[in-house]
Amino acid sequence: QVQLVESGGGLVQAGGSLRLSCAASGRTFSSYAMGWFRQAPGKEREFVAALSWSGGSTYYADSVKGRFTISRDNAKNTVYLQMNSLKLEDTAVYYCAQSSAVVAGHRTYEYKYWGQGTQVTVSS
Asked: Which of 36, 97, 101, 121 has its CA 20 to 30 A from that of 59?
């Protein structure tokens, strides 16, 4: 059984930074693309960032491009999301997800396994 465990969320002031981590176990981590999604209260889950199995290809939502960076360490079975210049509208529960494919996608149905989420709250 695949397990994804996110960490690193918390409360931060606007303009600040946070680094989320997602530790994976249960199947060959390096064989699959990974992604981050988020869900704010009353809104649908939305794509944030994704990267391919090797980390060579990355993909970002327009709303976070230039501020967020996704990366992975296949030796540690971990994917990261570095979030800089945080805005109030970045407040959400952030979910790590593992794809069924090697290439990065932005649709929720492309991801087979999901973590439990970690709360990120940006204050003014």
From this structure: 121
Q: How confident is the model at residue 1 (pLDDT cuts 50, 70, 90)?
A: confident
Comparing CA positions, the residue from 123, 121, 124 lying closest to residue 41 is 121
Longest dimension (CA), the chain: 41
Which regions of the chain does DSSP assign to beta strands (E)? 3-7, 10-13, 18-25, 34-39, 46-51, 58-60, 68-73, 78-83, 92-99, 111-114, 118-123
- Give me the residues paired with residue 10 across strands: 120
**pLDDT tens digits, one per residue of 38-92:** 999 999 999 999 999 988 899 999 999 999 999 999 999 999 999 999 999 999 9
Asked whether the beta carbons of 61 and 45 are under 8 A apart, the reply is no
Q: How far apart are CA 63 and CA 6, in angstroms?
A: 21
